Structures are given as structure tokens and as C-alpha cells.
Amino acid sequence: MHGRDILIVEDERKIAEILQDYLMKAGYRVSLLDRGDTVVPYVKQHSPCLVLLDIMIPEQDGMEVCREIRKFSDVPIIMVTARVEEIDRLLGLELG
Fold first, then answer.
1. Which pLDDT tens digit goes with each residue over 32-84?
2. Across the chain, how many H-helices and E-strands are there?
3. Under CATH, domain 2-95 is a member of which superfamily?
């Protein structure tokens, strides 16, 4: 694990770039991915210290990506979403 490496998984380019700018100014190294099916192989290879994960991403949704990551890693994951339903919050908490 690299203590200053953060992975942003976000398909909305503007949002990803804003997050990237703030984190880079704070001294973090940031990688961007925009599809769910690319996340698990990336995390296995690069071991980021944090994953910012959009729930609604193409190819494999963020909830499923989180489930897959939890099978092999306890990396902190912050879910980034526009969903406000209580069930979505509970599911996110259940996944870890």
C-alpha cells in the first residue's frame, strides 16, 4: 500500500477532475477510472490507501465493485453518490 495514493472511480469527468484537483493540491497521488470493470484489477495491482467510488458507474455498479474489493482487501472506500434513499445508505454500510 502506498500511503498517498488515492483511486477515484467516477464516470462524470468534471466531478472526477474536481476531486483530483483538491486531492493533488493536498499532496496525494491520484488515479482516475471511469468504469466498474477496471477497478478490482487496479486495486489488486496498486493497493491504493483510499478508494472514492461512485455507485452509478458503467459496466459494473459501485455496490458490486465494493463487494468484490471486500473479498480481498480492507482498503477504506468512500461511496460517492447522488442516491439519497435510506436503503442505499444501509446497503453501503453493510458492504463495508
1. 999 999 999 999 999 999 999 998 898 998 989 999 999 999 999 998 876 55
2. 4, 4
3. Response regulator (3.40.50.2300)
Cell of 11: 464516470
As a whole number of angstroms, the distance between CA 80 and CA 55 comes to 6
- Contact predicate 80/55, CB 8 Å: yes
Q: Which residues contact 7 (CB under 8 A, 6 or more apart)?
A: 30, 31, 33, 39, 42, 43, 46, 48, 50, 51, 52
Q: What distance in Å separates the CA atoms of residue 61 and residue 59, rounded to the nearest whole number?
A: 7
pTM confidence score: 0.83
